[in-house]
Design goal:
By secondary structure, the chain is mostly helical. The chain has one domain: MetI-like (MetI-like fold), CATH 1.10.3720. Helices cover 74% and strands 0% of the residues. Helix 3 runs parallel beside helix 6, helix 3 runs parallel beside helix 10 and helix 8 runs antiparallel to helix 10. The radius of gyration is 22 Å and the shape is elongated. 38% of the residues are buried.
Length: 260
Amino acid sequence: MTALVLVSVAAPVLTRYPPDQVHLGWVWAPPNPLFWLGTDGVGRDLWSRLLYGGRQSLLIGGAAAAAATGFGSVWGMVAGYFGGRTDGILSRVTEFWLATPLLVWLLFLAGVLGGRLGVAPFAGLVALGLWPGVARAVRARTMTLRGQPFVEAERALGLSDAAILFRHLLPLLTGLVLALGANTLAEAVYVESALSFLGLGPPPPTPDWGTLLAQAAQAGIWQDPWALVWPGVAIAWAVGSANLLADGIRAGLELEGEGE
């Protein structure tokens, strides 16, 4: 993941051509010394488009993951800590959201918002689909922690619920939240690419990986197989590395005895 972020950020330095520069004599060119990954149907450099597309995909995925993790964590903490009617209402909302397939929700919301969205609205749309999973996991862990003796002692000392939640329980949830954030990042990149593939991503000219896949798919695999391979590899790399990061965080927590 670090490598993907670095090469995407350094795209202006690592690329020879702008992502939308057309080279009419090099349409559907295979990888060669001038165009390292080949070109697309109008002669645009795939290496340049892949790196600039990574900036877009990772920016949207990262922003969506951060928003979903933050909102879902607060939602789950409140539900798990207060319990009772509060937990009942918040948990029913979470379950209702989880009961509908993710892409169905997102396609519906994208249709309501209409057409292609800007970067910030698109990241918010992706985040809307991902927060319930975070909320459910944080709620379960918070319910376990709220029964610990130190919580009862803090209540007896007169600490407010907000102080107990954010000054004492939140630090104990940090490892779990980080692991959930890494998993959510993997989901966000995948969902962002899927929605862009369906034509709902940010508008041109800047590409993202899902848009690159869609453009290559329209041409067909036999026309230019490389145009399909490179964005697919980038998406798989980003999703796999984020999931590995989450597994590493969980393994570290187990070694330190902090739970899963």
